[in-house]
Queue: 2 jobs
Job 1
Amino acid sequence: MNYTYKVGGINISSTIYFPELMKSQSSPEVIVSFDEVPDHLDNNKVDFPFIEANNEQYLLKLKNIGRYLVEKGSKITVQAEKNANKTDVEKYILTNIFGALSYQRDLLPFHGGVFVYKGEGILISGLSGNGKSTLLAGLYQKGFKILSDDISNVIIENGKVMVQPCFPRIQIWRDTAEKLKLDVSKLTQIRSDMEKYLIPIEDSYYPEPIELKKIYVLTNSKNNEIKLELKGLGKVESLRKNTFKPWMINTFGKQKEVFQKLISIAGVVSLETFPNNKELEIKDFIANFIKNLSQNA
Amino acid sequence: MLNKAVKPIWLASYPKSGNTWVRLFLSALLSKKELDINNIETDGIISSRYIIDSTLGINSAEIPEKDFLPYRSQLYHKWANTFTQKEYLLCKVHDSCILEGEILFPPEITRGVIYIIRNPFDMVASMANHSGITIDQSAKMLCNNNYKLAAKKSGLNTQISQHLGTWSQHIETWTNIHRDNMIVIRYEDMLLKGLETFSKIVNYLELQSSSEMIEEAIRLTSFDTIQKIEDQTKFSEKPKKSELFFRSGKIGGWKNEITNDQAKHIIDCNFDTLLKYQYISPNGDIIV
């Protein structure tokens, strides 16, 4: 049986059932299926332990999980390892595979999640460990609508920078879930041997594309006062650094298009850093962020 | 002799052994700017998750750490090579040199090693303060084969976990791998014989600095000076659980901080190394 979904602006048809994805009636642009995946690519251009890639293909090989091949933005093939946990194998499609697919389809994926504020989209980005998902989960609990978590696809349409909804889940670690008083026993684990969970957020999901107004880049800083409005080429470079796995831009031969898009985004979307002082309680971090938002956004 | 084909110089130590002091000294010596404890001009800590995330191709938090363990030295080498404008890198390291049979910092990716060692008796209270644990827990850590930093698996840290093992295992992993290209600096000598000891570091690194410059950098980074700066400025490397990063720094403070039983426990599990670095006498008496 084939299921059809829309994720990050892409219509897919899948033999795998994804309970977390939004169903779609549109004709599929991408086929996801289980089949044989090669060990290597003929024309590998990258030097990573678990990845091979070239202009048109992306191959991810994960120990105890399986192999994934994304081709020409239209086909995802998955081969599970023997004895791999089926759910673990399926969940990886929603992260790196989805990121690679987005680049191949000329979408611009940013690393981070988007929520709605006063009818516009605000993207939270920053390095892993700086609190993106924590903040997003906190905002969700405060009643904000959420479009996406780890990957946010941006398109430029009639001069407007639009961000696409992804799927109604936020990934969160056990420690954060406990601090936010969420019962992890009721949540789905992303991978059975890791303490990372998916929070369902259907009740606050925003399922339509929205104009992106601002990007906050979270930093790990003990100084609560640092807030820096970035401008010029520094802003473009900061935007590039916060795209999803920026190495993919060159490997898929998208440098020119992406640079043009980043210039356009830099022209209309403001960018500011926001410190996550980990000496503070999570609730204070979230409260400070909301206060800043109401003063500046 | 430095291996000049590659860039990383590892500033390796157990925590609370003077690693930050050496980095502050080098920063004061090499930088033309005023010393800023929150912008030490060395090249960060090698356990930074960012280093793995920028070289692995996927985010390190998406797979168990054991899966990328065999590739770590290769990833460090790749990261170091991105610094095309720098002749060398000075990186803080708390990991032991070997983990589960993998050499994390092999000679072929290493320009040099400065290993900073401190008597473990004085480290106990300092580590307890640093980690927000009791003196007894701290004494036991120095004797724990599985002692790790940032090892919690239920959350995401900006550093990956670092395996240290016992105080003596830690230094032995480094000296076994790098015996031909490293210097071992005693914290106590940095304090008691500053010019001689810091000159040894400067000479090993082949830096062109006069005695006056070295003395000035020592003065700028003396414990009292840094402690005063920390009083006025938050230090970004201070852990959440401790009040101050630069706490006491004295030699022999252990006499008022740990019990005889705790000292004996540390001696029993680290005897040979304590003797080798002249922290105990052959009959097991503490001589610091």
Note: The interface with chain B takes residues 46-51, 60, 62-63, 92, 95-96, 127-130, 173-176, 193-196, 220-223, 245, 247, 278-279 of chain A (CB under 8 Å).
Job 2
Amino acid sequence: MSGFARNDTSVIGRWWWTVDRWALGALAILGAFGALLILAASPPVADRLGLDPFYFVRRQFILMPLAAFILASVSLLSPKEVCRLAVAVFIGSLILLVMTLTSGAEIKGARRWISIAGLSLQPSEFVKPSFIVIAAWMFAQARLKRGSPGNFLIGGLFLLVIGLLLMQPDFGMAVVIAAVWFTQFFLAGLPLAWMAVLTVMAGGALAAGYFALPHVASRIDRFLDPATGDSYQVTTSMEAFMHGGLTGRGPGEGTVKEVLPDAHADFIFAVAGEEFGLFACLAIAGLFAFIMVRGFSRLMEENSLFVLLAGTGLLVQFGLQAIVNMASSLHLIPTKGMTLPFISYGGSSLIALSLGMGMVLALTRRRAGLGGTP
Amino acid sequence: MTGPGPSFPAKGRPARNAGIRTPGRPSHHRGHKLGRLGGTAKQALDTARNRLLMTGALFLIAFTVIGARLVDLTLLRDGHEPRLAQATGLGILKKERADIVDRNGVLLATSLTTASLYANPRRILDADEAVEKLKSALPDLDGKLTRSRLTSGRSFVWIYRHLTPRQKYAVNRLGVPGLYFQHEESRVYPHGNLAAHALGFSGIDHHGLAGIERSMNDELRESSDPLKLTLDIRVQSILHQELSRAREEYQAIGGAGLVMDAHNGEVLALVSLPDFDPNNPEDIDDEASFNRAALGVYEMGSTFKIFTTAMALESGTVGLDGGYDATEPIHIGRFTIRDHHPKRRWLTVPEILIYSSNIGAAKMASDVGVSGQRAFLRRLGMLNAAAIELPEVGAPLVPSPWRKINTMTVAYGHGLAVSPVQLATGIATMVNGGLLYPATLLPRIPRKTEKDERPPETGEPGSRVLSPDTSEQIRRLMRLVVVEGTGKKAAVQGYLVGGKTGTAEKSARGGYSDKALLSSFVSAFPMTAPRYVLFVMLDEPKGTEETFGYATGGWVAAPVVRRVIARTAPMLGIPPVNENAPEIQSEMMVNITPRGPSLASF
């Protein structure tokens, strides 16, 4: 696998020998699965919406090289540069997030999208990775520097982001950010008593979401008791896995994509299950697990608290989204519209995930020769 | 790579607060070589690593669960039995309305899922061809109307409602695109109009509009268990058949009939004629839907003399061996009370009943008095609407004010109008040992254990109206009427029928008409230990050649009673007895005249 000599000290050469090539490979395979499944799942959806059958395929395929480019170039950065990039992205996406509230297009009862130069963008996707990196920096600062205002600052920033997301409303995104933030706080040495308090608060927030947001309540009710309402989507999704069996019905032979409105996004895992079977699904789940384990094990050796917290946060966001998406399709949890990283259709999601995973690759690069930290 | 690593933002910033740190603890803000890691930083990193391990373990568990679930769904579940069908199976089985069954579980009303055919005209390729094909499957389809609907350009038009499975199959076989089925539920009464007035019917929106369907609407909609009624559809069928035959034979405008369990008030049959087919509620007219058995109230005539006699015997104003002078009609105010077949002599109490003497009954009631009579009739449930579980229940027409003249006319069944259900309930009380059981269509819960038994209040099931002795005397007298008196045509060999005729002139403008009669017969059987009360009434029957022009209860209603008892008694499990057996003779013996004993079976 060497295209570069060991003593090649060019930027690319050094990158190649220090980056986590196994994780990189796994991400590439995930992307390939994504391309395949978009081809399988999206034409019927586009057809139903009265679009050209390859509308989604074309849009996603145009973005894929861009995503690969972003992933690769971000992974070249040093931790310091990652942090700076995160601050820039965070400020930009926060401004856009505020703008969606005023000028965003309302889709299905929520304002999440904003149109910039003809491209529609979901700023909340970009808030996620950038906020995680900034939070990691502040947690590290607070932990290592007595008297620094990190804890208060990060708390205030957290409430601001969550508040903006709930105003859209985007409950799922808020839950993901809260979960990641909580994990980082936990890793940064949150006392156990505080953990108990925050757990209770998180429970309270979930309950408040249940009572304040009717669509959240309805989803949870339907999960607990399918008879209370329309559980058509998840029932169809489960049937898809049953029909697929061990080896699947074969590419293009699936039927769920004809009926599920979100076959190319939230329920793409069900399309994979029906057309490619258990092996493919286990492979996809395994790839996600592999990337997380690789990342975690490399972070274990890390000596920088900031890198450890940022890397963990980004990986947790990535893994959590994957788990929520797959578990929704399998009716293990109430349905929550969340994309399956690198596989579901969605431009903002793909670019933002490339950014995030590029940061992970950058943070997990071996810097041992430089004493563990650059 | 250069830069200070974790604390790079602090690069170039002097450790301003380094001074307040505990001496000896090295500052960590610069220099991050492994060997130079400070205590706080090392501690923080250790904590973070430990907790990172825990986080990683949690994620591995989550991925394992997802993998297990994948295996479970794809391999361990049968994909050919979709969960959808299982999950919603219970929901489909829950009908809009529960079934109704009779006391033996025979289906009286049910809800069937039927298919209705509709079309999406925009998907119809060739309307003419579609209509032609449809006509072959549904011959009575209106082709012209269907064609105009199919070419209407709308996206939904009904073609045919409530197809049979066979028709649905035929339409499916046509293979015409653009045709679809909508499942609907329709209420079906397999016995048609047999128990129409008891069952009632329900409307298109599955709400009960009459009868039990209406009064038990909530129960029927909420429960999925069948609702059991006290009706016995076999008895209902026989009563319906015989009453219909008599109504036709005597050209009566209507009729009513009732079979009741004498010991608990359960109604086994309830017929009102004319009736209707609840399967077609839109065709029902007011006349047919009128329930003569429960909603109609009538001046019942002589059947009331049973109540008058029981009241007199119970109050002790006269005994069975006593009597009254019926030689002369009674003149009171501008009224004259006379007998139809005057004997013009002194009559014993049994004779008053056998010959149906109005004069005798009026005198008997006079002796008891106005208030005594009112109290008695109130206890017997004659002054309040029957408690039967039907929305169509008539309240009695009670004389007001209730003077002496009213007491005299009520004594022989005029001036107080009650429903057949009320009358049958009263007769059951007369013969069952004196206990009142309000009529009911729902099986009566068995009485509580004797321990916590308290005497039931007036009107409650089981409240005492008569002493067992009086009830026993009334049984003998009712038997005597069939053996010796006006009810001979009701006799059925072996079943010890007892009863009383009633022939009332229907009130017309300004008085009574002797042309329009209400002829009835109320009976109980077997009289040694009565099990059932049977009431039959014909509204305005006309006499025939066979009845010599008579249309009285004894001529037109008593034969119906005879036929119904002859057919139902064996079915109801009543063993026939030898009516001439000495023990039965003595049990039914009544002294008709003061001169000497007479056997009721003579």
Note: Chain A has 14 helices and three strands.
